[in-house]
Design goal:
Blueprint lengths: L3 E3 L3 H10 L4 E3 L2 H13 L6 H11 L5 E4 L5 H19 L2 E6 L13 H11 L4 E6 L2 H9 L4 E4 L1 H11 L16 E2 L2 E2 L8 H14 L5 E2 L7 H9 L5
Helix pairs in contact: 1-3, 4-5, 6-8, 7-8
Bound molecules: SN-glycerol-3-phosphate (G3P).
Length: 236
């Protein structure tokens, strides 16, 4: 299993690569904001373009995901191409992160815009990391559209199951891979009993149909969950 560090903090990323076990980086706009603000508070003047370029260099040619902030197919495709054009020349390692479904409400007409954006960017030779995957069906469609990475959000599924059942928890609390019973009933979300089960089903879909996409178990909360992601065959 490869390990990608989920951070935009240059010191953390450098540390990970120094350990010799990190194979890539995933960033998102809030991680970048947090990392840059920390430096600005420390008295540094930060140029965002130069800062992102340093992350790409520290990653030594391994994949670095940069996420779009647009939420329509046209917007995500244009922004994805722009980001790739600006940053890929630095070290040739930019992957564009696209939300599988950018819709905010049930009646939005953008539910498939992520799939369209993945398909178009991939066709243009730009590798995509599909983010915010919450069902194996979404993983399946993203794989068919050509995504390089599929990122099921394991921790967020577990958070959601506990929240809906009114169970209080800390962010890093362990959630059983086999699911949790509450008042003699297994908590589940449309047949998914835990974040790890979501990862496992995404891996099964990819393996069964020999897709080239890799499953990146995202939003992991603790080391035991990393172990379980490895045991169900997550590629990253
Ligand atoms: O890259 C995805 C990851 O940052 C999400 O993590 O902890 O906000 O669910 P979390």
């Amino acid at each position: 299993m490869e390990i990608f560090i989920d951070s935009a903090d240059l010191d953390e990323i450098r540390q990970g690569y120094a350990w010799g076990v990190v194979d890539g980086v995933t960033t998102n706009p809030s991680l970048l904001k947090k990392a840059v603000e920390k430096r600005v508070e420390g008295g540094e003047k930060v140029d965002l373009k130069a800062y992102i370029s340093r992350i790409l260099e520290v990653a030594q040619g391994t994949p670095v995901s940069l996420e779009v902030t647009e939420y329509t197919a046209e917007g995500m495709i244009a922004q994805g191409k722009r980001l790739h054009q600006i940053f890929n020349p630095v070290a040739g390692n930019v992957y564009i992160k696209i939300p599988v479904n950018p819709a905010f409400r049930a009646d939005d007409d953008t539910h498939f815009d992520g799939i369209r954006a993945i398909r178009d960017l991939t066709a243009a030779g730009i590798p995509v990391n599909t983010t915010l995957i919450f069902t194996p069906e979404q993983a399946f469609l993203a794989a068919k559209a050509g995504a390089s990475f599929l990122s099921p959000f394991a921790g967020r599924i577990d958070d959601d199951l506990r929240k809906k059942a009114g169970i209080s928890f800390d962010k890093t609390d362990y959630y059983p891979a086999g699911g949790l019973e509450n008042e003699d009933e297994l908590l589940e979300d449309n047949g998914i009993a835990s974040g790890i089960e979501l990862v496992e089903q995404c891996v099964d879909v990819v393996d069964r149909y020999s897709f080239e996409s890799k499953v990146l178990a995202a939003s992991l909360r603790n080391p035991r969950q990393v172990r379980e992601a490895a045991l169900v065959g997550a590629h990253i």
